[in-house]
Amino acid sequence: MASPSEDIILETEDLTKEFAGFIAVNGVNLRVKRGTIHALIGPNGAGKTTCFNLLTKFLQPTRGHIKFKGRDITSLPPTDIARLGLVRSFQISAVFPHLTVRENVRIALQRARGGSFDFWRSKRVLDELNARALALLADVGLESFAESTAVELPYGRKRALELATTLALDPEMMLLDEPTAGMGHEDIDRITTLIKKASKNRTVLMVEHNLSVVSTLSNTITVLTRGRVLAEGDYATVSANPEVREAYMGTGHA
Questions:
Q1: How, if at all, do strands 31-33 and 203-207 pair?
Q2: Going by C-beta distance under 8 Å and a sequence separation of 6 or more, which residues neighbour residue 184?
Q3: How far is CA 8 from CA 67, 69, 70, 173, in A?
Q4: The model scores a pTM over 0.85
Q5: What are the domain boundaries of the chain?
Q6: What is the topology classification, in CATH, of domain 1-85+171-254?
């Protein structure tokens, strides 16, 4: 049985980011348990995206520490963070728009294999990865779109492709940045199902505005407001907190 410390896969201590005197993230202590789906919510300007950028090292903290699997990763660059198994998904750059759906996943699989992309001998190398690519596409419901160009995909299907390319990297932990933003009801249901499926044997930390998605998926919710942690717990606990209702849920934004 794992000890309490072994149960924590990602941890921050006094994580703080200042921009020219403005404190965007202020002393955040975050503890994400291994094998859970953990949501980071809060009103606009609460510091959620800045916090994500700190965790994936696109920003360097003003002070504080970040640990992943017990290792201090505060000073590591984004590429090293990804190699350790902490991967951020749902970024525009996750997909090559003019390659096919299958080619996008094959390239991600090649990256996971290590070394260079081998574009000069890509046909032989990448063809070896076809079976795995098609299996991943089947996992996210895109097998019938395998030969479609990524740019032609409907928005919700494009997000599913981004999830497939992230899974191709076989991350131990995924950070999902507003995975259902801009989606209609059908796409939201599809992506929610995919995230639940993808979370098996993995840890997920997500920023999400849709509280229905948060309540459906999350084991633990951390509420940020003005860069600070306001509350934390399961959905029932957090939604019953008067301060949370005033700061976030009372705003009328889902």
A1: unpaired
A2: 156
A3: 9, 7, 8, 12
A4: yes
A5: 1-85+171-254, 97-170
A6: Rossmann fold (3.40.50)
- The stretch 30-39 carries a mean pLDDT of 97
For the chain, what is the mean pLDDT?
A: 88
> Tokens representing 88?
């951020």
* Residue 30 contacts residue 66 (beta carbons within 8 Å): no
| Chain segment 108-132, per-residue pLDDT in tens | 888 776 655 555 555 666 677 888 9
Per-residue pLDDT tens for 66-100?
A: 999 999 999 999 889 988 999 988 654 457 889 99
